Structure to design on (212 residues):
């Protein structure tokens, strides 16, 4: 029986909250890179005994990334809004998760879906348009392939369309119902004369070809 994905997707303003990553090896690097690619102004603190050299390099380019070289202590969780646990010690990861849970901190424990309050899925960005892709923690590889697929098939004009529709939306002086109706009409006219409409018509067989 096919598993149903009951996750509720949200888009966070990481520059307005405090993010903590515990562990700075290959996995910590992957999580940091992922977050900075999507949110380059994110406030991120990393606590670790050792740091992958690429983590150190990234901290030189991003003033909003702070490195703290030390053993983890539960006091590190103070004032943290979002937590990524990426050490190579499973027992320590479980301990940190429990301590974070006691403080009601949303936590992602790398490679342990059962201990995750949220997942870091695939992200496709085209200007103002952003798509989040999730496999409910079952297959990061599939999420990656879907991200690559949509990055290829969605044209850059999609981002331009979002900017244009936003400007039009601000100029429409009417109630919400008529504003939505007007925007729908503009969208239809816009798509009829662009590559956007063509790109959004995706056949199921295309996915089969790509994933085989």
């Amino acid at each position: 029986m096919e598993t149903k994905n009951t996750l509720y997707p949200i888009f966070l303003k990481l520059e307005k909250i405090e993010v903590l990553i515990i562990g700075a090896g290959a996995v910590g690097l992957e999580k940091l890179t992922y977050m900075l690619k999507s949110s380059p102004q994110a406030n991120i603190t990393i606590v670790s005994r050792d740091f992958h050299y690429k983590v150190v390099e990234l901290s030189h380019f991003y003033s909003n990334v702070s490195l703290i070289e030390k053993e983890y202590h539960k006091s590190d969780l103070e004032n943290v809004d979002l937590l990524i646990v990426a050490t190579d010690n499973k027992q320590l990861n479980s301990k940190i998760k429990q301590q974070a849970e006691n403080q009601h901190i949303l936590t992602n424990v790398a490679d342990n879906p059962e201990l995750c309050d949220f997942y870091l899925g695939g992200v496709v960005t085209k200007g103002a348009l952003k798509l989040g892709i999730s496999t409910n923690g079952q297959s990061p590889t599939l999420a990656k392939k879907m991200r690559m697929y949509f990055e290829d098939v969605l044209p850059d004009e999609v981002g331009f369309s979002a900017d244009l529709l936003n400007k039009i939306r601000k100029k429409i002086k009417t109630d919400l119902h008529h504003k939505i109706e007007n925007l729908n009409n503009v969208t239809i006219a816009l798509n009829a004369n662009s590559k956007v409409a063509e790109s959004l018509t995706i056949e199921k067989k295309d996915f089969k070809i790509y994933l085989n």
Summary: The chain has two domains: 14-120, 141-211. The chain is about 45% helix and 15% strand. The radius of gyration is 20 Å.
